[in-house]
Design a protein that fits this description.
alpha/beta, six-stranded parallel sheet, 13 strands, Glycosyltransferase_28, Rossmann fold, globular, 408 residues
Length: 408
């Protein structure tokens, strides 16, 4: 059995596919992951023995350019340029790689998933669309995300109406490009590209952290796909951790920031206000120390699973992977959401009582000091431990068995 896994996305999109690939290999399947060529993905997949086919340009460079230079698409026409480029870059390598496959599993940006779906349809393969957050799935429990050139209608509060409107939005943004590609390979165009591509999806999130309310869609919630990390922490980091009480951690993962220096200063000063040391993740935000204080330590690539278990609190952007990793570690969280699904995860952290949801994307010393007061409270720590004990740990293994049992 051969499974092709595809993602045009950041670390949060690629790492879950690596976790699934590892479990598929344990069941005897052959796997190949199509993902951006960034070195961190090369290293990530290489260290777990998962073959990697680099496709397209650097996603880190693209995200930084869009986030920090004001070049983010603001209209439908702006976005279509990126959609056409993505389909052109992915369709050829994807088709060639899929010729020997039995199934395609895809996540990440919608046009990339739609391309994978079209290829699987053309070749007669099993196709699995994977959501890594519930907020991009139609549900009366939440509204859709606003899209470039398509803000949510003013005054409309019924989520069902908003999701019906979202069909038109997605068709306008992605339908022309996707249908052009479909027709180029002999497939019929579709007039509701959102629901056609998203038919029968899998939801790879934890049911405690991200519960799914049953809808008319045939959604399979597998649990989160977490790649186990057994790497040791560096000797320097171990020495820092051993030199005092547990520090707080701050990092924004794969999210570049407009003012990383100000964010780092706010985090450091807020930690100091509570008498805490701090570990800063450099990440795509390029966080760094603000002075020569020995109460600060900067890390690059690091085993977050190990580090979080030894932290007093974790400040982050609210990505699905980081939120889940922190929740499984039983560490209180401060979530400073930036985009898309991150406000949802901030809200879930607050609702579960395992941390604080920051108001808005721009942290200050004062706002983080207040948020850390919640996260560092003993009641929050106890609740974080309780929630961690209730979370599902076998999501990737469960999903792999589902696919293997179906395909044979």
């Amino acid at each position: 059995m051969r499974v092709l896994l595809s993602s045009r996305g950041s670390r949060g999109d690629v790492e879950p596919l690596a976790a699934l690939a590892v479990e598929l290999q344990r069941l005897g399947a052959e796997t190949l992951v199509l993902a951006p060529p960034d070195q961190e993905f090369v290293d990530l997949l290489g260290k777990v023995g998962v073959p990697h086919l680099p496709v397209g340009g650097s996603v880190r460079a693209l995200v930084k350019d869009l986030r920090t230079t004001g070049k983010a698409p603001r209209t439908s026409a702006d976005l279509r340029v990126h959609v056409d480029e993505l389909i052109e870059a992915y369709s050829g390598p994807l088709t060639e790689a899929a010729r020997d496959a039995d199934a395609i599993v895809a996540t990440g940006l919608f046009p990339g998933v739609a391309t994978a779906q079209a290829v699987s349809e053309k070749l007669g393969l099993r196709f699995v669309k994977v959501f890594l957050q519930p907020t991009t799935l139609p549900s009366p429990a939440h509204p859709p995300h606003p899209m470039p050139g398509w803000p949510l209608p003013e005054g409309v509060t019924d989520n069902r109406v908003l999701w019906d409107h979202n069909i038109e939005v997605m068709q306008d943004l992605f339908g022309p490009s996707i249908n052009e590609y479909r027709e180029s390979i002999g497939l019929a165009p579709v007039d509701n590209v959102r629901d056609y591509v998203n038919n029968g999806p899998w939801l790879a999130t934890d049911p405690v952290l991200s519960p799914w309310e049953t809808t008319d869609d045939d959604v399979v919630q597998t649990g989160a796909w977490i790649l186990e990390d057994d790497r040791p922490l560096s000797a320097d980091l171990e020495a820092f951790l051993a030199a005092g009480e547990a520090p707080v951690y701050a990092g924004f993962g794969s999210i570049p920031l407009m003012a990383p220096g100000e964010a780092a200063r706010a985090a450091v000063e807020a930690a100091r206000a509570h008498g805490r040391r701090i570990v800063l993740l450099r990440g795509w935000a390029d966080l760094d120390v603000i002075d020569g204080g020995d109460d600060c330590f900067v890390v690059g690539e690091v085993n977050q699973q190990a580090l979080f278990r030894r932290s007093a609190a974790v400040l982050h952007h609210g990505g699905a992977g980081t939120t889940t990793t922190a929740a499984m570690a039983g560490v209180p969280q401060v979530v400073v959401p930036q985009i898309v699904d991150q406000p949802y995860f901030a809200g879930r952290v607050a609702a579960l009582g395992i941390g604080a949801a920051h108001e808005g994307p721009v942290p200050t010393t004062e706002s983080l000091t207040a948020a850390f007061a919640t996260a560092l409270d003993s009641a929050t720590a106890r609740r974080a431990t309780e929630v961690a004990a209730s979370m599902r740990r076998d999501g990737a293994a469960y999903a792999a068995k589902l696919l293997v049992d179906e395909i044979g």
